[in-house]
């Protein structure tokens, strides 16, 4: 069975990455154990050798004293026993010296001490009563020098051992650094094999969320689960494009095709209302008034659908310099009749004399906010409209008194075809597109819309637009 990283599952890739990351760690542990074992064995061997050498040096030092004592005793009492004892001490000293010289060939006085001991043995065998003081002094002095040299050698061995330990530590440090770096590179490589397709999935999802998205054509490569998820997103993108096209076609055709029969209905209702085709009795007049109301409501809904359709088709705003005071007065004039019917008065506070914006989009925002305030505001209560600059933004506020909007519903009301629980006070039944159009227009202008709390009104909708490209006068 062939194992391919491109077709491996996410679980297999994670396990493989974990195994690869453990390899340098295992090598580091093995190398550390090997180095520590070498240092430990070297220290034990050096310690055993040092103890043995010190013991030999002490034994030889004691034998020198025994040799000197036996020689002097034999000089006074010449007996075979004392002679054999002295010769035995000298022979033992020669054996110990031979062992010491084999274990420590660095000793410089080995041959000289051996010659002195052999000369002492030869002179001791000769039948003379004189004590070889010169040879005894030479043997004693050289033995002291040998002992001193042994201690010097042991000190040098200790220094070499310390240097060896330091060298081993340095080597382990470099090996640790190299293996940790290798482990890090392996972890980065493995994480890249996982994060790269995840980032591409994120780009796919963001592309799907765009109004006119360009879905990446390249096939996602990586773990099998993520590759399958990428194909599902590709299918979802295609499906959403189809649904979006169908929705736009439906909105465009439905809203357009409704206008022709709606115009005929309104013209017929007007003829009946003016009784140009003949007089009407009271019951017929009541029916005609109901038809007029339904036709007006259908006309308003059709205009909102057309407005929403035009908004969906507009990709970029057309920036221009406008006079906000004049633009607002024109909007208030168009809504004057509906405001007068509910005895509502607009209180305008415009602090800007010039505004760089898309006049059509800004007017759509203002129209829908004024219509919303007129329809849901309390009768006889004013409608506050404010336009001012705050930091690096232009803020438009439209507020009214009435039923406050719960916090849980505020964000949802900016979605298409979403309506609140508060009933309208006019004769038109809303479609739930007003605040959605406000939010979409604000997004096209680079801003956003929110429902906020203010002290002077019960309901306030605030639109915050960026100041970039704007020229203040």
TrEMBL record:
Residues 192-245 form the HAMP domain. One of its GO terms (biological process) is osmosensory signaling via phosphorelay pathway. GO terms for molecular function: ATP binding; phosphorelay response regulator activity; phosphorelay sensor kinase activity; protein kinase activator activity. It is found in: Membrane. It holds the Pfam family HisKA. Its EC number is 2.7.13.3. PROSITE patterns: HAMP, HIS_KIN. InterPro entries: BphY/WalK/GraS-like (IPR050351), HAMP_dom (IPR003660), HATPase_C_sf (IPR036890), HATPase_dom (IPR003594), His_kinase_dom (IPR005467), HisK_dim/P_dom (IPR003661), HisK_dim/P_sf (IPR036097), Sig_transdc_His_kin-like_C (IPR004358). Its main location: membrane. SUPFAM superfamilies: ATPase domain of HSP90 chaperone/DNA topoisomerase II/histidine kinase, Homodimeric domain of signal transducing histidine kinase. Keywords: ATP-binding, Kinase, Membrane, Nucleotide-binding, Phosphoprotein, Transferase, Transmembrane, Transmembrane helix, Two-component regulatory system. GO terms for cellular component: membrane. The chain crosses the membrane at residues 12-30. Residues 253-469 form the Histidine kinase domain. Gene3D superfamilies: 1.10.287.130, 6.10.340.10, Histidine kinase-like ATPase, C-terminal domain. CDD domains: HisKA (cd00082). SMART domains: HATPase_c (SM00387), HisKA (SM00388). It catalyses: ATP + protein L-histidine = ADP + protein N-phospho-L-histidine. This is histidine kinase. The lineage of its organism: Bacteria, Pseudomonadati, Pseudomonadota, Gammaproteobacteria, Alteromonadales.
């Amino acid at each position: 069975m062939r194992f391919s990283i491109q077709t491996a599952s996410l679980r297999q890739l994670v396990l493989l990455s974990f195994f690869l990351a453990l390899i340098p760690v295992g090598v580091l542990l093995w190398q550390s154990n090997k180095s520590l074992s070498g240092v430990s064995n070297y220290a034990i061997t050096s310690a055993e050798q040092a103890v043995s050498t010190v013991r030999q040096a002490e034994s030889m030092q004691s034998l020198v004293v025994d040799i000197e004592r036996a020689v002097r005793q034999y000089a006074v009492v010449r007996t075979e026993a004392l002679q054999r004892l002295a010769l035995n001490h000298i022979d033992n000293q020669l054996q110990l010296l031979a062992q010491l010289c084999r274990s420590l060939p660095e000793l410089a006085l080995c041959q000289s001490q051996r010659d002195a001991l052999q000369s002492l043995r030869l002179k001791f065998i000769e039948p003379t009563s004189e004590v070889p003081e010169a040879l005894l002094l030479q043997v004693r002095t050289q033995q002291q020098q040998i002992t001193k040299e042994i201690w010097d050698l042991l000190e040098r061995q200790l220094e070499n051992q310390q240097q060896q330990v330091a060298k081993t530590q340095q080597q382990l440090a470099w090996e640790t650094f190299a293996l940790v770096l290798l482990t890090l590179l392996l972890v980065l490589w493995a994480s890249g094999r996982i994060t790269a397709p995840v980032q591409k999935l994120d780009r796919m999802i963001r592309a799907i969320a765009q109004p006119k998205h360009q879905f990446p054509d390249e096939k996602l490569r990586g773990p099998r689960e993520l590759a399958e998820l990428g194909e599902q997103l590709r299918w979802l993108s295609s499906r959403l494009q189809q649904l979006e096209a169908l929705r736009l076609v439906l909105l465009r055709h439905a809203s357009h095709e409704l206008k022709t029969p709606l115009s005929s209905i309104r013209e017929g209702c007007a003829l009946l209302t003016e009784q140009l085709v003949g007089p009407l009795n009271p019951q017929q007049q009541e029916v005609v008034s109901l038809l007029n109301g339904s036709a007006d409501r259908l006309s308003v809904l059709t205009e909102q659908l057309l407005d929403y359709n035009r908004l969906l088709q507009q990709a970029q705003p057309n920036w221009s310099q406008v006079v906000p005071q004049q633009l607002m007065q024109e909007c208030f004039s168009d809504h004057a009749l509906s405001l007068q019917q509910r005895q509502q008065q607009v209180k305008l506070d415009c602090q800007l004399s010039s505004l760089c914006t898309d006049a059509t989009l800004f007017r759509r925002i203002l129209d829908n906010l004024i219509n919303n305030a007129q329809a849901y505001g309390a009768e006889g209560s004013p409608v506050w409209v404010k336009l001012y600059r705050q930091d690096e933004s232009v803020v438009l506020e439209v507020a009214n008194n009435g039923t406050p909007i719960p916090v849980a519903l505020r964000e949802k009301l900016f979605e298409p075809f979403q309506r609140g629980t508060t009933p309208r006070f006019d004769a038109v039944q809303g479609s739930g597109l007003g605040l959605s159009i406000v939010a979409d227009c604000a997004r096209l202008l680079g801003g956003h819309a929110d429902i906020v709390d203010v002290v002077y009104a019960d309901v306030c909708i605030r639109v915050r637009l960026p100041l970039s490209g704007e020229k203040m006068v």
